[in-house]
Amino acid sequence: MGLFLYTFLFPGGEEEACRAALEREADDPDLNIRLDECRWHMFPKGPAVLLSDGAVGFDSAGRLSEAVNCPVMGLYIYDGDFWGYDLWQRGRQLDQFASLPGYFDEDSPPNMPGNAQVVAHTFGVEPERVERYLVPWDEETMDGDIYAYDEDKTVIGDSWQMADLMNALGFDFDRFYPQDEALDEEPKKEANRSASVTEGELRQEYARKQSMPIDTPELPDALNSRYYALQRAELLGEAYEALFWLLRDGDYQEVIAQATAAITAAPDKAGLYLLRAFCWKQTEGLSGRSRKPEISRDLTKALELEPDNVMALRARHPNTETSARYPRHIQDLTRLMELDPENRDLYLVDRAYRHHWLKDDDAARADLEEVLDHGELWTVDLVYLCGELGLPGF
After folding, report:
1. Distances (CA, A) of 237 to 124, 189, 240, 254
2. Which of 53, 58, 268, 280 has its CA 20 to 30 A from that of 67?
3. Would you say 107 and 96 are in contact if contact means Cβ atoms under 8 Å apart?
4. How wide is the angle at C-alpha 149 spanned by C-alphas 148 and 150, nearest 5°?
5. Residues contacting 164, CB < 8 A, separation 6+
6. What is the DSSP secondary structure assignment for residue 216, as one 8-state letter?
7. pLDDT in tens, 284-318
């Protein structure tokens, strides 16, 4: 599960009135707003609030604007995939924007840029300072490491671009996570801690030191790495040279056809199955049906021939999400921990999810405890599952 986040900016608003408006909004239990977990900060331009985890804030900006004497911008990140905002004043929508239009269907969210003039006027900035954020993403910009502005922290195509826009408007997102100066000092040894410090408090300290969680990194695998696919094609040798050039040119359908013929003649070459699986992945959805069964069969066959292939193991366990496959996912992830210890924490979190889905929460907690004991990984998925399972400090 990706990140769902909602925050509201009240430029020119009075903090007391804004807090009261949110309290009334929280009376609706369907919104799941836990007031004691919301984070407020008073900026020079006005108050802002980051809603509690699990809150639903899509439709709140309009209602809040009816209760306060200032504009309200509701910004959100949806499932870690895209970001957007709604800008309201006195119950009237002034502007809206979504970085990935058509995410749900052709018109939802609508394919339209935001209005830089309206946003700039509302927040007292120059339109040129925000207009580059208000352009819907396309494949060209999302595929490169392109920043809207040189001073940004996040590239186009990353949902945390929302925070760059906030900063440009005068609302620094990091202010929602105040840093305790004492935490910047070298941590005290565990033996010197007060016996009254609970495990939950230690976890909360760790969370503060890590600031906000990041999206789970995507490791290269046999399905997402074009470089690896080309490498495997090259290793097949001169007899299969045509496959390399077809793959390089992106002629995936022809690679599938020729690899299928080659497998009939040489069923013991793992590289052929890996190439075909990669190309199935690139053509996913083009025929109107899923190619996941074919991908899974090819990866499984490749692993029968190369049981310790890390790239194939990484690719296979997220490819099939049916509950009957979870035990195999657990086996793959356990083996990956042995073969690729550098990424052990990522595999532990993935395995914890499978344990949880199989109702083995004791095993899930054990995996999460190990990750937290290492104190290095801090991702959205980790934080969410720790909270779901009620680990101390979450």
Report:
1. 63, 57, 6, 18
2. 53
3. no
4. 130
5. 133, 148, 149, 152, 153, 154
6. P
7. 877 666 788 889 899 999 999 999 999 999 998 77
Distances from the Cα of 347 to the Cαs of 175, 225, 325, 375, in angstroms?
Answer: 32, 19, 16, 15
- Which three-class secondary structure state does DSSP give residue 249? coil
Question: In terms of Cα–Cα distance, which of 375, 367, 373, 369 is closest to 391?
Answer: 369
pLDDT digits (tens, 9 = 90+) for 150-160: 888 888 988 99
| Helix, strand and coil in the chain, % to nearest 5 | 50, 10, 40
Q: Give the type of residue at 273.
A: Y
Spatial CA neighbour of 49 closest among 58, 59, 37, 31: 37
List all residues 6 or more positions away from 389 whose beta carbon is below 8 Å from its beta carbon.
356, 361, 364, 365, 368
All residues at 6 or more sequence positions from 344 whose CB lies less than 8 Å from its CB, including other chains: 337
Residue that the structure tokens 């890996």 belong to: 274
DSSP-derived 3-state class of residue 176: helix
Which residue type, as a one-letter code, is found at position 361? D
Give the residue from 148, 145, 160, 168 showing the smallest Cα distance to 214.
Answer: 160
Instruction: Read off the tokens for 91.
Output: 């119950």
- Strand-strand pairing, 72-78 and 5-9: antiparallel
Per-residue pLDDT, 194:
38
pLDDT band per the 50, 70, 90 thresholds, residue 195: very low
| Distance of alpha carbon 353 from alpha carbon 383, whole angstroms | 12
Q: How far apart are CA 66 and CA 60, in angstroms?
A: 10
Cβ–Cβ under 8 Å, residues 66 and 91: yes
Q: What is the greatest pairwise CA distance in the chain?
A: 75
The strand order across the sheet containing 39-43 reads 39-43, 46-50, 5-9, 72-78, 82-89, 92-98
Q: Indicate the length of the chain as a whole number.
A: 394
DSSP string, 138-173: -HHHHTS---SSTT-SS-TT-TTHHHHHHHHHT--G
The 10s digit of each residue's pLDDT in 77-92 is 998 889 999 999 999 9
What is the residue type of 289?
R
